[in-house]
Write a structure and sequence with these properties.
With 89 residues, the chain is mostly helical. It contains three helices and two strands; from the N terminus they run αββαα.
Length: 89
Amino acid sequence: MSQEDKRALTILEESAELRNGHYEIALPWKVFPPDLPSIKIVADHRLGLLKKRLIKDPELYLKYTSFMEDLFERGHAHRSDGEKKFLCR
Protein backbone atom coordinates (compact mmCIF):
# COMPACT_ATOMS: atom_id res chain seq x y z
CA MET A 1 0.00 0.00 0.00
CA SER A 2 1.34 3.45 -0.92
CA GLN A 3 1.74 6.27 1.60
CA GLU A 4 -1.24 8.05 0.03
CA ASP A 5 -3.34 4.90 0.38
CA LYS A 6 -2.34 4.55 4.04
CA ARG A 7 -3.16 8.21 4.70
CA ALA A 8 -6.55 7.85 2.98
CA LEU A 9 -7.35 4.73 5.00
CA THR A 10 -6.42 6.53 8.23
CA ILE A 11 -8.70 9.45 7.36
CA LEU A 12 -11.58 7.07 6.63
CA GLU A 13 -11.07 5.04 9.80
CA GLU A 14 -10.75 8.08 12.06
CA SER A 15 -13.69 9.96 10.61
CA ALA A 16 -16.27 7.15 10.31
CA GLU A 17 -19.30 8.02 12.41
CA LEU A 18 -22.84 6.63 12.59
CA ARG A 19 -25.45 9.42 12.41
CA ASN A 20 -29.19 8.82 12.15
CA GLY A 21 -28.65 5.26 10.98
CA HIS A 22 -26.16 6.22 8.25
CA TYR A 23 -22.38 6.24 8.26
CA GLU A 24 -20.57 9.47 7.43
CA ILE A 25 -16.89 9.66 6.55
CA ALA A 26 -14.57 12.47 5.58
CA LEU A 27 -13.31 12.64 2.03
CA PRO A 28 -9.63 11.69 1.82
CA TRP A 29 -8.33 14.86 0.12
CA LYS A 30 -4.65 14.90 -0.77
CA VAL A 31 -4.50 18.51 0.36
CA PHE A 32 -6.77 19.75 3.14
CA PRO A 33 -8.64 21.93 2.79
CA PRO A 34 -8.89 21.14 -0.92
CA ASP A 35 -8.15 23.90 -3.42
CA LEU A 36 -11.30 23.63 -5.50
CA PRO A 37 -11.64 25.83 -8.59
CA SER A 38 -14.57 28.18 -8.99
CA ILE A 39 -17.22 26.83 -11.32
CA LYS A 40 -19.25 30.04 -11.51
CA ILE A 41 -18.40 30.63 -15.18
CA VAL A 42 -19.52 27.11 -16.12
CA ALA A 43 -22.69 27.40 -14.01
CA ASP A 44 -23.58 30.78 -15.57
CA HIS A 45 -23.07 29.33 -19.06
CA ARG A 46 -25.29 26.33 -18.31
CA LEU A 47 -27.96 28.63 -16.87
CA GLY A 48 -27.91 30.67 -20.07
CA LEU A 49 -28.35 27.51 -22.16
CA LEU A 50 -31.26 26.40 -19.96
CA LYS A 51 -32.95 29.80 -20.31
CA LYS A 52 -32.68 29.58 -24.12
CA ARG A 53 -34.22 26.09 -24.12
CA LEU A 54 -37.08 27.19 -21.87
CA ILE A 55 -37.84 30.23 -24.02
CA LYS A 56 -37.88 28.12 -27.21
CA ASP A 57 -40.05 25.34 -25.76
CA PRO A 58 -43.20 26.53 -23.90
CA GLU A 59 -44.19 22.97 -22.94
CA LEU A 60 -40.79 22.33 -21.38
CA TYR A 61 -41.06 25.70 -19.59
CA LEU A 62 -44.38 24.68 -18.02
CA LYS A 63 -43.00 21.30 -16.91
CA TYR A 64 -39.86 22.91 -15.53
CA THR A 65 -41.71 25.64 -13.61
CA SER A 66 -44.16 23.08 -12.20
CA PHE A 67 -41.27 20.88 -11.05
CA MET A 68 -39.45 23.82 -9.46
CA GLU A 69 -42.61 25.07 -7.71
CA ASP A 70 -43.04 21.60 -6.22
CA LEU A 71 -39.47 21.69 -4.91
CA PHE A 72 -40.08 25.10 -3.31
CA GLU A 73 -43.40 24.03 -1.76
CA ARG A 74 -41.85 20.89 -0.26
CA GLY A 75 -38.96 22.88 1.16
CA HIS A 76 -36.33 21.02 -0.88
CA ALA A 77 -35.20 24.30 -2.49
CA HIS A 78 -35.55 28.01 -1.90
CA ARG A 79 -35.42 31.13 -4.03
CA SER A 80 -32.20 33.02 -3.54
CA ASP A 81 -33.61 36.33 -4.75
CA GLY A 82 -37.09 36.14 -3.19
CA GLU A 83 -38.73 36.34 -6.63
CA LYS A 84 -41.98 34.48 -7.22
CA LYS A 85 -41.52 34.19 -10.99
CA PHE A 86 -38.72 32.80 -13.08
CA LEU A 87 -36.61 35.42 -14.77
CA CYS A 88 -36.31 33.78 -18.18
CA ARG A 89 -39.79 34.85 -19.35
